[in-house]
Amino acid sequence: MHEVSTAVLSSAAFIDHEVKGDLLFTQMMADSVLRGTFFWVLDNTFHEIFYYFQQKYGQDNPKLTKHFRHVKQTLIVNMRHDAYEHAKKLSANPQTAVDLNRYFTDIFIPVAEQLAADSDKFN
């Protein structure tokens, strides 16, 4: 899971330093370009984690690869919903400082745990 943590924290750092910068989280979410970039990074992080598990565990197990293909859509929809709900909750109080490392960890570690559990079931 170190690889997953690295991807998650790297994405969070990118958003924090390159997208959000000195802005408050609410200000970033109010700007359509920054908000779009934020959710684009979330999608890319999901795909990075998903393909990590697919390559590491599914390459020699066609049944697991097939299973991953079937659950991918559900996982990404759930991830997007969780990310949106977290963002909405954080935007409710505009002056709150947002820890993006925690935000990304809260969104992606459950996805990684689900993929790891599925990998264990098939191996």
From TrEMBL:
Top-level division of the source organism's lineage: Bacteria
Protein name stated in the entry: Uncharacterized protein
